[in-house]
Amino acid sequence: MKIVIDCRMINSSGVGVYLKEILRYLLDSTHEFLLLGYSSEIIQNVNFKSLNKRIKILDYPKKTFSVDELLFGLPHKTRKLINSYDLYYTPFFNIPKGIKKPIFSTIHDVVFPDMPELTSWLGLKIRMCFFKRAVKKSKLIFTVSEFSKERIQHYFGSKKPIVVTYNGIPEYLSQLKEHPEKEKIAFDKPFLLFIGNIKKHKGLSVLLQALSLCKEQGLNLKLFIVGNGENFRTKDSTLDAKQANVAFTGFLSEEVLREYIKNAALLVQPSLYEGFGIPPLEAMSLGTPVLVSDIPVFKEIYADFPVTFFEAGNATDLSKRLIKLFENGIPQRVNLSDSQKTKYTYEKTANIVKKTLETN
Questions:
Q1: Does 93 or 45 have the greater pLDDT score?
Q2: Rounded to an integer, what distance in angstroms lies between the CA atom of residue 18 and that of residue 22?
């Protein structure tokens, strides 16, 4: 089988992790692949021994979700090459015009129609056009949780087949090698960790309010926010991270991020909405305890894991949970069972994707 995979979002935080992790396993199969995207980014992120007659890269620098691509499609030569393959897979819901072969896509979540306050009226309309087009054009849709599957069906009906392919633990976290000694970071005090952007649905403002309440009760906790505050898009206008004990880490390499996760006293995921929510899984894989909001998808994904839940959006409840967790010092490290460690893996995800593509 000859498969085209759109890799243009391989460097993005959520979709990119999903894509490059499943590619590790998809490309090991006997099929032929054409990887569409920025060749330098693909070579940097995809773990294959070498390009060969079975794995090729089509260097294509156009950004995804462009109106031009939606209205006029891909350039003639690019379109002709893509249509010489058997099928087209995209790990998100952007589908260029002019693809004649069966299309398979992944819709990770439908956060914008579920939380329309995150964008403008026009922005929502445009996104809904892309969603509707993806549902219409795709032979089958993948998504990352039963929650997301239900929400997709809520907006677009249940006629289109939807297959759940959960996220997993990224390879760099599962590797046992230690960070180079010369680059180890000296963490001078117990700290909380937040991983994610600062869009409103991530709930970071709720966490900051909770930290203020904790401070009033005598618990002064340090918080690291992974990323650079100046580089986040669609910021939560209610967010005030200018507190003495709150700091952005800036960009972190995978090795350094692993050190932050491993050394954190607690990872807090206060999301109001997620399609899956990977950071809690990443944290527990390294022994770091987790405090998460009780949104439906977290109740689905982490029901059988040693997490502590708090009421989503409730800063007072979050502060009480934090005080309880730290009342006897640093929270106890977690130790996942073998079944918990293997419940969500990208190898499983890739195998589901591969088998689905082969049989449809």
A1: 93
A2: 6
